[in-house]
């Protein structure tokens, strides 16, 4: 299991706080997605992120997203523990369960610091 740095953990918390603070659904999803990218190496944060995504999908009455998040909640910790997760993936149903994606530049800079 990869241990994430304190800087990476702070970025995760910042993105989750921004998600909680906004009233705009598109902005909330964007922050949750960014937090997901950062959380992937950590089983606990990765799972917590998918739980937050699930809760938001339920609040939005998005059945497809909610069901997809249930699947991701189940596989998040094992994926993090084994290092089998798609780097850069935003964690949403439309992203695909195992599809790697580009990591935004500012996030990549923090992860590589």
From TrEMBL:
Domain of life: Bacteria
A matching Pfam family: DUF3703
InterPro entries: DUF3703
Name the record gives this protein: DUF3703 domain-containing protein
């Amino acid at each position: 299991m990869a241990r994430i740095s304190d800087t990476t953990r702070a970025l995760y918390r910042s993105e989750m706080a921004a998600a909680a603070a906004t009233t705009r659904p598109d902005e909330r999803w964007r922050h949750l997605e960014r937090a997901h990218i950062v959380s992937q190496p950590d089983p606990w944060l990765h799972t917590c992120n998918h739980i937050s995504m699930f809760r938001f999908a339920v609040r939005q009455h998005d059945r497809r997203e909610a069901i997809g998040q249930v699947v991701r909640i189940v596989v998040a910790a094992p994926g993090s523990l084994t290092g089998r997760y798609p780097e850069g993936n935003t964690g949403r149903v439309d992203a695909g369960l195992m599809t790697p994606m580009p990591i935004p530049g500012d996030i990549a800079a923090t992860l590589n610091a």
